[in-house]
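hi!! sorry for the late reply, been swamped w classes. u asked for the two structures so here they r. pasted raw, havent cleaned anything up. first the sequence of the first protein and right below it the tokens
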Amino acid sequence: MMKKTKQVEIQIESLKKACKEFELDNTQESYYISYPDFLEHFKNISEFKKHDVVVGIHLIYGWMPTICHLKSKEFDESARILNKVKKNNQLLKEGDLDTLKDLFNKSIVGTSKLLHFISPETYPIWDSKVCNYLGLPANAVNNSSVYLGYIEACRHIIGECQDEINHVKKVMKEFDPYINYEISDMRAIELVMFTSEKKGASLKIN
């Protein structure tokens, strides 16, 4: 039986307002500066193998306050899944996400960050601050189905809020000479949610 996806509905007007009020956090400058270098690292991987999987997820955990523990031995399968994303910007199904999560510290947060750096136009970063902005329960942060719903909601927002997203991208680009790069629409949306304390979403089952 096919699992029902948890659908996240982002309140458009709330997000538009947050985009207009968006300011970068000076305390997060290290993340902003390192971001393009992470992108470049994963761009230079032509095909994922076990080495790239292990090194890649540990690199990602440099952005996180926890240590990465490899929780399974599914290195070859995880490399195969990541290559689907690398080569085709493919949106993974819940089963593939769970395979990655089970290897990567049982964490959909770490998984989302890795997927984002491989395909920044397809996968937004997901973490507890974004989950809190969306008004979702704390246990939703590690749920693959919720993450897929979040991706779909972000895709919808991109079509509705392009002017506001462009404003966020402009603020990001002008922040510092070291951060003079163009971010994806997905990254722009996630940054707004990450830096905003206002809640603007709902969750339901299709």
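now the second protein. again sequence first, tokens right under
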Amino acid sequence: MLYGIALKEEGPFLEIGSWVGRSTASIALGIKDSGKHKEFVTVDLNPKLQDFRFTFTRSLQGAEYLIPRPGFGFYPLGSKKAFTVCTPGTYKKSILPALKGPGRVIGMLKKNLSDLNLLDLVTIKEGDFRAVLDKRKYAFVFCDALHSKAEMDLNLPAIRELVSVGSVVACHDVYNEEIAKYVQSFIPFRFWCRVDTVGIGFL
């Protein structure tokens, strides 16, 4: 889906929450295959080890548990509440290597894009997207920073300011209709659909 949008639409494109670049590469590859110059900006907090803490949670990856389960919570920007929680196994296998490598997450992002010959198609910014982006509108926004209600409350109002009539917004981690309705309460989409765990709204 991300590849197809980048292939057909003119941009500019914005990604919020690149992590190490799976979705970034999909968008960049669509731009490359279009044969056109299209602006593409991606932003990531580039978290540090201290932004993740061992915790217990009753909710993990869209499931509700009666007994709290152990996990690692993500506490960015000085938050006292975890924005998302992953299993200890996921933290050790997928997150810790990115946090400990050269340049942390953005270092791995750049390496992955470079290995795919896509790095020159992407402008990478580090930090809170509210602080590092210019005040402008984007034709397409892909957001992978809506892992919890707290994160939605923080990020969705700011995303609304980055889009206008005609824009498309895709949101990852939309596991069910309750989350879908919550996302839609922030942004007045004319049309909305959900494909697996990605919600797509058209303004």
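hope this helps!! also noticed smth abt the second:
The first helix runs from residue 2 to 8.
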